[in-house]
Write a structure and sequence with these properties.
There is one protein chain. By secondary structure, this protein is an all-alpha fold. It has one domain. It has 3 helices and no strands. This is NBS-LRR resistance protein. It comes from Trifolium medium.
């Protein structure tokens, strides 16, 4: 039972992080702070991979 709840929580967390990461507002903020945009793309790919599992 705890495993199912944990999986649901993790899935929801990954989905939320993915939605926030791909938002244009977040990407613009990331760029304005002169942060590593390719690193953000890697994060997006990793989150998409996690969501697929």
């Amino acid at each position: 039972m705890a495993t199912i709840v944990g999986e649901a929580l993790l899935s929801a967390s990954v989905k939320l992080l993915l939605q926030k990461t791909v938002s244009g507002e977040f990407v613009d903020f990331f760029r304005s702070m002169k942060l590593d945009v390719p690193l953000l793309e890697k994060l997006k790919i990793t989150l998409l991979s996690l969501e697929a599992v």
